[in-house]
Amino acid sequence: MWCEAVRWREHGELGARRFETAARARRTASLALSNRKEFTTPHNGAINSLQVDLTERRYLLSGASDGSAAIFDVQNATEYEAGFIAKHRSILLVDKQHENGHKFVVSMAVWYPVDTGLFVTASFDQYVKVWDTNSTQLVMDFKMPGKVYSAAMSPIATTHMLIATGSADVQVHLCDIASGAFTHTLSSHRDGIMSLEWSTSSEWILMSGGCDGAIRFWDIRRAGCFLVLDQSRSQLGRRPPFLEGTSDKIWFVSHISDPLNSLQPSSSSKIYSAQQRTGKSSDSRLRLWDIDSGCNTLVNFEAMRLQTSKPLQLAVTEDPSLVFIPCMASIKAYNLWSGMTFQTFRGHYEPVNCCYCSAQEQELYTGSNDMQILVWSPSTPAFTEMPLQEDDGKRQTDFVVDDDNWSD
């Protein structure tokens, strides 16, 4: 089938965009635990947050429950084991031993969107801190009224440098890096704020998910939220014409039934995901929403089992066609539009907390309570054909690595 697609592309029967989509889908379908790339983490606690920088798409930032944050170069290995397996060790580490390090769990670590020179960490010690990557020094910090569950910066902002923070307090606090002060707060939630995400189509739109079960949308230039998603409002059978790019107001939201504990955007400005949890019980359901109408589209996602003890970080492919959900010690990939299970990834020994899709490397990174970051890459054969060489103007015959070379 793939050879036919290549042939159709060569003959001009298949457009470039459709061919690219088919190639990405094929590589995504072949994702498997990488046998050529490993991360050696310095963390001594569960991995709670993962993000690749938005500028160079090269550096992976992680936050852990031991109060540490680390940075890895995903493109250049630190060393090679047996000349084959690329080992990636941290190139920067901020932990409790640092004079300004966090004292408790790092719940979120995010990059400054337009420069890898800064990154932000949020912690249960009630502080949000901004770090200089080059000097590993603290630039500024913000004291919050409670445990900080989430922090987010707009990936497209050009007129502000705000960090939105969600904590055990019922308000969303906006911190300004430019001035080092709080600008204002957003009030409507009745319980703690578990997750936050900025819109990728407007620098003024912010989404929040709280322990009160509400998903609220804010225009930070105005008082009060302008939209609250209600799962009782539904519209059966409506599907966004996403592949044609004709809709600008389609969002994806996944949730469980009461408190919202995760919001994760895809690389597209049209799609977002979220997840909710509730103390001892949970319906473990995902839901797809049409934000144009604020209605639940009733996509029937297959059942899953989710841990409810902490926020979870989801991931969506760039297409977007798949959503990756941490399901206890495994990761499940669901088809975004049909709700069917596409694939289940098993490799961690303890519950998984976070997923991140790298469009640049076409890889999936996952962090778990087992203190490991695993890499899931498109599968490649262990042995490949050696390149053809020329000697004295004559092309040598093909040589395959695993061919025997016994002499007669």
UniProtKB/TrEMBL annotation:
It comes from the Eukaryota. GO terms for cellular component: chromosome; Cul4A-RING E3 ubiquitin ligase complex; nuclear matrix; nucleotide-excision repair complex. Keywords: Chromosome, DNA damage, DNA repair, Nucleus, Phosphoprotein, Repeat, Ubl conjugation pathway, WD repeat. SMART domains: WD40. PROSITE patterns: WD_REPEATS_1, WD_REPEATS_2, WD_REPEATS_REGION. Pfam families: WD40. The keyword Repeat applies. The keyword Ion transport does not apply. Pathway: Protein modification; protein ubiquitination. SUPFAM superfamilies: WD40 repeat-like. Residues 389-408 are annotated as: Disordered. Substrate-recognition component of the CSA complex, a DCX (DDB1-CUL4-X-box) E3 ubiquitin-protein ligase complex, involved in transcription-coupled nucleotide excision repair (TC-NER), a process during which RNA polymerase II-blocking lesions are rapidly removed from the transcribed strand of active genes. Following recruitment to lesion-stalled RNA polymerase II (Pol II), the CSA complex mediates ubiquitination of Pol II subunit POLR2A/RPB1 at 'Lys-1268', a critical TC-NER checkpoint, governing RNA Pol II stability and initiating DNA damage excision by TFIIH recruitment. Part of the CSA complex (also named DCX(ERCC8) complex), a DCX E3 ubiquitin-protein ligase complex containing ERCC8, RBX1, DDB1 and CUL4A; the CSA complex interacts with RNA polymerase II; upon UV irradiation it interacts with the COP9 signalosome and preferentially with the hyperphosphorylated form of RNA polymerase II. Interacts with ERCC6/CSB (via CIM motif); promoting recruitment to lesion-stalled RNA polymerase II (Pol II). Interacts with KIAA1530/UVSSA. Interacts with a subunit of RNA polymerase II TFIIH. This is DNA excision repair protein ERCC-8. It comes from Oryza rufipogon (Brownbeard rice).
